[in-house]
Amino acid sequence: MTGRVEGKICVVTGGAGSIGAATARRLAAEGGRVAIADLAADAAEAAAASIRTDGGEASAYGVDVTDPAAVERLYADVHHRYGRIDVCFNNAGVLLEGDSDPISTPLDLWLRVLQINQTSVFLCLKYQLPYLIEAGGGSIINTASMVALQGAATPQIAYDATKGAIVTISRDVAITYARMGIRCNALCPGPVETPLYQTIFGGDPEALARRLVHNPMGRVGRPDEIANAVLYLASDESSWTTGTAFLVDGGITYAYTTPES
Ligand SMILES: NC(=O)c1ccc[n+]([C@@H]2O[C@H](COP(=O)([O-])OP(=O)(O)OC[C@H]3O[C@@H](n4cnc5c(N)ncnc54)[C@H](O)[C@@H]3O)[C@@H](O)[C@H]2O)c1
């Protein structure tokens, strides 16, 4: 039996993190040959080793996605190793403490978040697109967030700005390269049970409860639920899906009120 991304060469940035590692594992389980790239080189290697132990194919790359030379090298190395690139999940991102409203957020923090969450995606696109063009097509999935589509009285102004930009960037790439067989979608997860999500609350259970009430299903998402969406967007099943802000959020973005119990 063939998998849903059988033989596709998939590059996952932030691949050692919660959503990235779950996705790398899911893609490998469906026949993808996965390159896991992360700043945390040891964790990337551990994620790849664990996939290999389970019979999947994965390799690891220690890469800072804000470093243009390192990003260029990543895609050149993956191409050299596998001979082509088919799927790029540009997913590395951070939510930094101190990112809040415009008055209190320091400029250097703002600039740092833009570098890690937004410029990194530009760099990945810059150096991966030539290989997708060479391959005659491919699928790009850029991780945005539901915060690109709705407002909050508890802003993380730099983070929110970068995620809005990811939706715009993804749309332009989708349209520009549509006739070259390249699709590009912005993945917009709602709140997912990860350490990144927990950083919002700083361990405050009251703040967590206040947020939880907005989730129609009464719970946040799991990394494997996001991985399933990426698998769909990576596979040929989504062959007519491009340029979207692809929401996977348990209904939170479109909820005006939520059930009481
Ligand atoms: N967790 C959520 O609730 C949620 C919701 C919406 C969107 N997202 C987005 O999903 C993506 C993944 O988030 P996550 O929850 O898995 O977080 P995570 O912290 O578990 O994973 C992020 C990964 O990115 C890596 N990384 C950070 N800076 C990097 C750099 N400069 N170069 C290379 N790698 C770097 C980290 O080492 C980490 O492994 C992020 O873009 C995040 O903004 C998360």
SSE topology:
Elements: E1 9-13, H1 18-29, E2 33-38, H2 41-53, E3 57-62, H3 68-82, E4 87-90, H4 107-135, E5 138-143, H5 157-176, E6 182-189, H6 195-198, H7 205-212, H8 223-234, E7 245-248
Parallel strand pairs: 1-2, 1-4, 2-3, 4-5, 5-6, 6-7
The protein binds nicotinamide-adenine-dinucleotide (NAD).
Nicotinamide-adenine-dinucleotide is lined by residues 13-14, 16-20, 38-40, 63-66, 91-94, 116, 143, 145, 189, 191-192, 194-197.
Task: Name a few traits of the molecule.
261 residues; alpha/beta; Rossmann fold; seven-stranded parallel sheet; binds nicotinamide-adenine-dinucleotide
Radius of gyration of CA atoms, rounded to a whole number: 18 Å
- Given the helix and strand composition, which structural class is it? alpha/beta
Report the CATH architecture.
3-Layer(aba) Sandwich
Count of alpha/pi helices: 8
Shape designation: globular
CATH topology: Rossmann fold
Number of domains: 1
Largest sheet: 7 strands, parallel
Distance between the termini: 43 Å
Record field, number of beta strands: 7
CATH superfamily: NAD(P)-binding Rossmann-like Domain
Overview of the molecule:
- By secondary structure, the chain is of the alpha/beta class.
- The protein has a single domain (9-246), classed as 3-Layer(aba) Sandwich (Rossmann fold).
- The chain is built from eight helices and seven strands.
- The protein has helices spanning 18-29, 41-53, 68-82, 107-135, 157-176, 195-198, 205-212, 223-234; strands at residues 9-13, 33-38, 57-62, 87-90, 138-143, 182-189, 245-248.
- The protein has a seven-stranded parallel beta sheet, sandwiched between helices.
- Helix 4 links the parallel strand 4 and strand 5.
- Helix 4 (107-135) packs parallel to helix 5 (157-176).
- The protein is globular and about 50 Å long.
- Nicotinamide-adenine-dinucleotide binds next to helix 1 and helix 6.
